[in-house]
Q: What sequence folds into this?
C-alpha cells in the first residue's frame, strides 16, 4: 500500500447514471422506490470497503421525468434507512443551502450522524435548478453570487450549531440528578446578513463532531468556498490535464487559507462501461446509447448550456456558434465541460448527446477492468484525483462488475484498502474529528 | 371483537415519560442516542400489534436539559431508521408548520412513506415553545392565531403536493421509452397568503396517498383545525367527563364539516404505573416521584402556566391566585388541564409537581393490569376515546409490562386486535386511502 489510499464513493442514481438505464434489459425500475433496493446497493459497496454512498438532490422535479425516473426520494431520510442495514460505509446526501433553514438542516444531518454512529456527510449545494425557486415562494432563482453568500453564512451557522454542545456536555449522573452540564451547551447567538439563529442545537454533539463537508462547485465562487470548507469535492473533468489543473488549484487555495491540502479529498466522477475486451465494453456503451431518447437528452443539454437545440439536425455538426457564455440558465459546473468536449471532439449534435448520456458531463469510459484501473491509477498518481465518485451506468449490474473486476486490481496494485480501518466516514477519508469551536477558549467565536 | 377496535400508539420519549425516568434503577440513558434502542422499542410495539409509534418534536432545546435527557433526535430521520427494522407498525413524527417550508416537509414525509411501504403519519403542530422563534430569525414566536392561519394554508399546500402525482402516473414502458405520463403529474400553482408553491412534488405519490394527518391542539383554533384535517388526535384529559366532552365536540365538528366521525380517531394520553396490586403500583409511582427534581418540575410548570413558582413553599397549598388566563407564555393545550387538577384536588405545590411529573398533564394512573384495562374499556366504550397514546413512565420496562399484562386482557375482552389485518397505518386506523385531488375532475382545485 502506498502512503495514500484511494477514496471511492458509489454515487447512486436509483436506476444508474446512464439516462436510458431503466430501459436496459434486466433493469428493475419497479424497485427503485424500495428501501431494500438502496440498502442492497450500499451493502455491496460496503462489502467492497467503499468510503461512502452518495446521493444527489434538488427540491424540484426534473423536466424530463417523462423519459426517465428522474424523481428524487428525499436523501437524508434515505440515508437513515440505509444506516440501519449497514455498519461501516459512509452516507453522503446533498442538501441545499438556498432552500433549507439552517436549524432544520443541522438537525437532520446531526440526527443521521447519531443514528449511523458517525457515518454522515453533507454535500453542500446552492441548487442550480431555477425551478426550485418557485417551490419556495420566489419568483426567480437567486443569482449565483447571492446563493454563495448565503451558503457561506449557512455553513457558519450549522457549524456553530453542530459545535454548540461540547463533546462532554452529557454527565448523566443518576445519583445527583445532573443530566447535562449547562456550561457546556452554548447558545450560538448568530446574527448575520441572512440568518439570526440563537441555538443551541437541540441534540448532543454527533459522533463525528460535524458531518463531513462535501461540495461540488467548480465556479470561482465554488472553488473559494471549497477551499475554505470542503473536506471532499465531487468534480467533473474530461481530461487528465483539466483534472490536474483543478486539483492543483484547489490544493493551493486550501494552503492559502491555512488548511492542510490532504484534508480536501478531490473525487472526480467516473462512469465506466466494463467488458472483457475493449470492443465488448464499447459495444455495451453503444447498446445503452441506442436506448437514449433525444427529447430527454436535449432537455438536459439545454440545462447545461442554456440553449434549446430541439429542431436542429441531430446528425449535422453541433452548432457551436449558438452557445454564449452569458446564457443565464446554464449550470456553471457543466458549461465549460461541455464546451471543451465540443471544441476537442467536434461532434455532431447526436454525438454530443451520446457523450453526455452516460453521466451528464462526468467522465465516461469503455474499457477492460485493467484499462479502468489504469485510468484510476493514472489520475490518482499524477495529481488529478484523491479518489473517484464511481457512477455506474446501470444498477446493480454496473457496480457489481466494478466491484468484482476492478476493485481487486486496485488492491493488487496497492491503491485501495481491502478492509475498513476505522468506523466513521472521517476515519475512511483520513480526516480529523474537529473539536468544538466552544471548546477552544482562545479561538475567536464572534460571527 | 366489537365493531370498533381500540387504536393504541406507543408514544416514545427516549427514556420514558416520567421526568425522572433516567434516574430509575436499571435505566440505560447511555443508549438513548442509539438507533437500536428505538428499533427495539418499535419492534416490541409491533409484536403487540400496536397501531404506531409516536414521537414528539420541537425545534429548540428544552430549558430543563440540565435535569433530564430532553434533547430531540430529529424524528423523521428516526422513523426512517425504524422503518428499516419493522414491517407493519405505523410511524408518526411531529413536525412544525411554523418552522418548516411546505415543500421540504412534504418531501420528508412522502419519502418515509415510500421507504416504509405506507406506514407514516405526520403530527401537525404549530410549535408552542417561544424559544423556537429565535432559531429561525424571528424576534418573537408568532401568536397562536397567526400560527394556525399559516398551518391551515401549509396543510393545503402539502396536500396538493402529495396529490400532485396521480397514482398511475408512472408508466415505465421500456419499449416505448415512456417513463411517466406528464398529464398525470400536476403543477399545483399554489398562491396564498403565506406560500407560493408551484410544484409538483419531485417524487411519485406515496403508498398511502397522503401520510396520516395527526394533530394535538385543543384550543378553539386547534379544534376547528382538527375537525377539518385530523385523522387522529392526541389529547390530554384528566377525567372521563372532560374526555367525553372533547370527544363529542370533535366528532360533532367533524360532522359539521361533512366528514365521517369515525375517520377522526381520538387518542388521549395514558401513562400507567402497573403493579400486581394497586398498592404495589402506587409504591412504584412514589418511587419515581421521589426521584423528581423541583428545579426541573418548576420550569415545566412555568411553561404550562406562564408563571414561575420557584421560591414558593413546596409544601404549602398551591398559590392558585397567581394563575391568570392571559399568561401569554402558557401552552394552551395544558393550561386548562392543570387548572382543573388544581381546582379539583387542591394540591400543595409539590403535590402538583408530582401530578405533572409522569406525563406533563396527561392522565397518569397507578393500578393493576385489570384496573388499567378497566380504565381503557370505560373510556373506549363511554364515548371518551377511540384508543390511547400509551406513554410508559420508563422504557423499555414500563412498556413491556403494559404489553405483557394489559394487552392480553384487552384482547380477551374483545377490545384490541391480536394481529394486524392490513399493512399501512391507514389500514390499522380504519382510514380510507384518499384519491388524488387531481384525479377528481369534478372537484374544485383552485387554491
A:
Amino acid at each position: 500500500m502506498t502512503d495514500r489510499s484511494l477514496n471511492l464513493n458509489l454515487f447512486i442514481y436509483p436506476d444508474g447514471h446512464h439516462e436510458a438505464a431503466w430501459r436496459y434489459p434486466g433493469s428493475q425500475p419497479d424497485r427503485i422506490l424500495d428501501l431494500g433496493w438502496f440498502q442492497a446497493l450500499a451493502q455491496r459497496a460496503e462489502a467492497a470497503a467503499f468510503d461512502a454512498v452518495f446521493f444527489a438532490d434538488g427540491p424540484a422535479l426534473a423536466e424530463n421525468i417523462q423519459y426517465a425516473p428522474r424523481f428524487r426520494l428525499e436523501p437524508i431520510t434515505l440515508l437513515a434507512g440505509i444506516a440501519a442495514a449497514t455498519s461501516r460505509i459512509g452516507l453522503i446526501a446533498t442538501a441545499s443551502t438556498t432552500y433549507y433553514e439552517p436549524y432544520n438542516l443541522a438537525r437532520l444531518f446531526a440526527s443521521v450522524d447519531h443514528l449511523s454512529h458517525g457515518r454522515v456527510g453533507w454535500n453542500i449545494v446552492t441548487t442550480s435548478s431555477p425551478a426550485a425557486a418557485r417551490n419556495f415562494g420566489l419568483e426567480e432563482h437567486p443569482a449565483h453570487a447571492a446563493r454563495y453568500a448565503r451558503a457561506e453564512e449557512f455553513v457558519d451557522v450549522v457549524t456553530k450549531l453542530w459545535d454548540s454542545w461540547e463533546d462532554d456536555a452529557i454527565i448523566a449522573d443518576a445519583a445527583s440528578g445532573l443530566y447535562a452540564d449547562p456550561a457546556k451547551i452554548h447558545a450560538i447567538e448568530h446574527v448575520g446578513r441572512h440568518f439570526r439563529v440563537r441555538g443551541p442545537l437541540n441534540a448532543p454533539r454527533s459522533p463525528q463532531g460535524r458531518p463531513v463537508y462535501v461540495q461540488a462547485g467548480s465556479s470561482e465562487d465554488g472553488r473559494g468556498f471549497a477551499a475554505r470548507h470542503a473536506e471532499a469535492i465531487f468534480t467533473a473533468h474530461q481530461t487528465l490535464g483539466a483534472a490536474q489543473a483543478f486539483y492543483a488549484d484547489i490544493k493551493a487555495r486550501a494552503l492559502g487559507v491555512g488548511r492542510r491540502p490532504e484534508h480536501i479529498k478531490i473525487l472526480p466522477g467516473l462512469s465506466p462501461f466494463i467488458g472483457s475486451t475493449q470492443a465488448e465494453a464499447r459495444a455495451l456503451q453503444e447498446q445503452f446509447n441506442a436506448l437514449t431518447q433525444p427529447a430527454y437528452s436535449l432537455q438536459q443539454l439545454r440545462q447545461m448550456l442554456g440553449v434549446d437545440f430541439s429542431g436542429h439536425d441531430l446528425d449535422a455538426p453541433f452548432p457551436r456558434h449558438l452557445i454564449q457564455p452569458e446564457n443565464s440558465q446554464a449550470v456553471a459546473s457543466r458549461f465549460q465541460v461541455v464546451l471543451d468536449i465540443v471544441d476537442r471532439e467536434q461532434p455532431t449534435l447526436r454525438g454530443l448527446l451520446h457523450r453526455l448520456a452516460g453521466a451528464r458531463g462526468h467522465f465516461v469510459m469503455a474499457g477492460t477492468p485493467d484499462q479502468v484501473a489504469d485510468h484510476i491509477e493514472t489520475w490518482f498518481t499524477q495529481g488529478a484525483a484523491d479518489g473517484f465518485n464511481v457512477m455506474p451506468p446501470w444498477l446493480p449490474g454496473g457496480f457489481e462488475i466494478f466491484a468484482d473486476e476492478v476493485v481487486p486490481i486496485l488492491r493488487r496494485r496497492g491503491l485501495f484498502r481491502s478492509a475498513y480501518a476505522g468506523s466513521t466516514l472521517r476515519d475512511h477519508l483520513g480526516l480529523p474529528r474537529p473539536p468544538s469551536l466552544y471548546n477552544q477558549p482562545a479561538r475567536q467565536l464572534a460571527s
